[in-house]
Amino acid sequence: MGYATCFVCGQENDKGLHIHFHKDGENGVRASFLAEPWHEGWPGIQHGGVTSAILDEATAYVTFFMGVVAVTAQLQVEFQDPIRVGERVEIEAHPTKVTRRIVEVDASIRGTDGALKARSHAKMMILSQQQKEEMGLANLP
Ligand SMILES: CCCCCCCC(=O)SCCNC(=O)CCNC(=O)[C@H](O)C(C)(C)COP(=O)(O)OP(=O)(O)OC[C@H]1O[C@@H](n2cnc3c(N)ncnc32)[C@H](O)[C@@H]1OP(=O)(O)O
User: Fold this and answer.
1) Is the pLDDT at 84 greater than 80, yes or no?
2) What is the CATH number of the domain that holds 36?
3) What ipTM was predicted for this assembly?
4) Distance, CA 103 to ligand 1 centroid (Å)?
């Protein structure tokens, strides 16, 4: 699923996070992740950029499963509680508003006990055929 070389989900990206996202209900997305030592910023704490990349990807998978080619135009992240190295977290995303060109998505990361670690609100812009061509994505559905 997704793209083999993607930094977050690509199974062929040696340096990637290798997160497997799956559909949850009609439009939702779910995944799980274990923070490793090489994902830290401050000692023992997952880097906020890694957290943001995971939220961005979960958001993108909502549109991916909708069958449109979209890019993140806006991503607003709240970091609520540190994600510790060695800690498993659960990731979830779902659409909140769909218009002709923009899909708004809420995503969250929680501990296995359900405690909120981070959440985001994003706007995904659905690309026109011309934009797909300009970005080299014309061969995608
Ligand atoms: C399977 C998973 C694959 C992995 C995917 C990972 C997801 C990603 O991280 S994608 C990479 C990161 N994102 C990007 O690189 C996107 C870079 N940005 C762009 O390419 C462009 O700015 C793009 C396409 C978002 C918008 O460009 P464009 O379509 O020309 O916008 P434009 O025509 O000016 O505006 C259209 C409307 O959207 C609005 N808009 C444009 N940009 C934004 C924005 N950033 N935020 C909010 N609204 C915006 C405009 O205000 C306008 O609204 P209205 O029609 O009401 O006036």
Assistant:
1) yes
2) 3.10.129.10
3) 0.86
4) 11
